[in-house]
Amino acid sequence: MSTATPASAVLAPPQRDPAWTGRLFWLGAVLVLLWPMLVATEFKPWTLWDPSNLQPTTHFLGSFFPPAMAPDFLWLVARETWRTVAIATAGITLGLFIAIPATLLSTRVLSISALSGRMARGPFVLRQILRWSLVVLRSVPELVFALVFVRVVGLGPTAGVLAIALTYGGMLGKVYGEILESGDEHPSATLLRQGSGRLQAFFYAVLPAHAAELTSYTVYRWECAIRSSVVLGFVGAGGLGQQMDSSMKMFNGGEVATMLLVFMALVALADYVSATLRRVLA
């Protein structure tokens, strides 16, 4: 008479996570690596609860309520909000004039000379120069560009537009190139071998496969440009940020609260536009 082992005894789940030692090790490794960084940055969040800091903080935050709703101030906020959107949109548009040509000229999938397997020396050198130029543009923060242009063209939105155009032109060009080179190269290579030009291969082979991703990223960068334009206003580049800087210097929390609410509405609008475009292009 044979005795069978119950299935429940064989398949009984372990009482302890078998991978707990590995997780504990990596958690300790992360903490060991993170600790010098926290020390270097003098990260001391407990100072927020120090009585000398807590009282002025709560007083300033308390001044946010109620938000300022005076008609004259709301009209000022509406005008500066429109100016902020205009700065971001104009900056992104100028950035596209930098990013699109650089992408078309530096992307390998659109290179005729690369069809043989190895890119010719001239196109390779041009490709590297363009890529290094994009690296330089996106390496300089738009805030630094804005500080330079404020001294060149003076206070106002022009400095913000130029700063966003240069930095975001480098960012868009880099990511556009990565998106185009991440797809299937066969359609574009086939058109190029049949005698099509770079633009024909782009519009008929590459763009249809990546239109939704390119559009989504462009709208996301437009949303980031709106946030950047607000920050650039603190250095005199105009828009909602410059008005917010003035209100904060006057410790007028109600006006700051109103502008923050408007700013959050702008970001929500950009997110809605991005989602809508993705659905249309899907």
Layout of secondary structure:
Elements: H1 7-10, H2 20-40, H3 51-62, H4 71-106, H5 121-139, H6 142-153, H7 157-181, H8 186-193, H9 198-232, H10 240-249, H11 253-281
> Which structural class do the helices and strands define?
mainly alpha
Q: Name the helicity range.
A: over 70%
Low-confidence stretches: none
**Count of alpha/pi helices:** 11
Gyration radius, to the nearest Å?
Answer: 27 Å
Q: What do we call the CATH homologous superfamily?
A: MetI-like
Q: Could you say what the CATH architecture is? A: Orthogonal Bundle
CATH topology annotation: MetI-like fold
Main pleated-sheet profile: none
Summarize model confidence as the mean pLDDT. Answer: 82
Task: Write a concise keyword list for the protein shown above.
282 residues; mainly alpha; MetI-like fold; 11 helices; 75% helix
Protein architecture, described:
It is a single chain. By secondary structure, this protein is an all-alpha fold. The chain has one domain: MetI-like (MetI-like fold). The chain is 75% helix and 0% strand. It has helices spanning 7-10, 20-40, 51-62, 71-106, 121-139, 142-153, 157-181, 186-193, 198-232, 240-249, 253-281. Helix 4 (71-106) crosses helix 7 (157-181), helix 5 crosses helix 7 (157-181) and helix 8 packs across helix 9. The chain is globular. The model has no long low-confidence stretch (mean pLDDT 82).
